[in-house]
Amino acid sequence: MQPTTRLVRAGLPEPPAKIKPGSPIHPGPVFASAFAAPGEPADSPYTYARFHNPTWRELEHAIGALEGGDTRIFPSGMAATTAVFASLLRPGDVAVVPADSYHTTRALTHEFFSSFGIEIRFAPTAGNAQAKLLEGAGLLWIESPSNPGLDVCNIRLLAESAHRQGALVAVDNTTPTALGQQPLALGADLSVASDTKSLTGHSDLLLGHVAARDPELIAKIDRWRTLSGSIVGPMETWLALRSLATLPLRLEKQSQNAQVIAEFLVSRPQVQAVYYPGLPTHPAHALARSQMRFFGPVVSFQLASRKAAESFLNHSQLLVEATSFGGIVSSAERRARWGGDKVSEGFIRLSAGCEAIEDLLADLEQALHFCTAA
Ligand SMILES: *Cc1c(COP(=O)(O)O)cnc(C)c1O
Predict the structure, then answer these.
(1) What separation in angstroms does the CA of 16 have from each of 48, 66, 354?
(2) Span from the CA of 78 to the centroid of ligand 1 (angstroms)
(3) 202-221 residue pLDDT tens
(4) Å from CA of 174 to ligand 1 middle
């Protein structure tokens, strides 16, 4: 079965054509804290909802089919990231993290895990620079394309180098999603993502997941979730399951829109630089083509100054000025307003939504006219 067919049918009873007459086609979420469980707990498929929930299982099966691995969901991307570091590393271990990764990942490892005795080494994503720091490492954490710079590294090559050193490899796969790039097939041990972004795509929930093929790794991730109580509510799980059916439609449209927007921005005099792996001028374009199926919704670009960027955002009629990305509604923000990323004051991260491209281009064009005076 094709991944798109699987996604459309995620959460439906099997086989969907044989749904019991009078039953909903798409079953609702299961709300429970405790399940009826007489006698031996092992005799009941479900006992207590911090351990398991049938709605979680449906979503985990669906994401797992995309990833090509067993999957556990978490209440946010950062909860999924924390599960990997906390369950796999011990004091004295070394983790290699991208210097240009999502800023909260850097802050989490630096502020917490390094004070727990784990050595954190940072190197940039571009040029596979992390390969140089792998000696003695227990975990290589990759983010490709990186957020917000959209640099790309060679996942297969880095995974081979890390495995030669005895390190596990985890990829933060948030920007492309498991439909756009499959880290496990490229040799990673763990694929991690914030499903708050494109995977669910409606800007209405937070979610994350970890996928792996090795049952021992999944057992550790599962154990961390059960003991730490880092769990998702059934309603969010069900919303995600519902959103997943349209992931192929959304991601294809967003990626097409992002590609056209990136090419348009390159042609504008007000734009100093455009960062998008789908552009032939991107330094890792050929590599991105070889390891990604979709280049994704995020396009970053450089305007002359803070004033130019603010003026552009203020005059856009369609871009919601908001953080996050991957939603059906196009959004953008001036990234330097948060601090934490090595970007200049005029740097904008734009997320292409599912609107008609003609409308987006007309809006970008008129908003860019206001940058010239700045
Ligand atoms: C947003 C994001 C995260 C964190 O996800 P949350 O769901 O906000 O916790 C991690 N990695 C990347 C690349 C992200 O963009």
Answers:
(1) 28, 19, 29
(2) 6
(3) 999 999 999 999 999 999 99
(4) 7
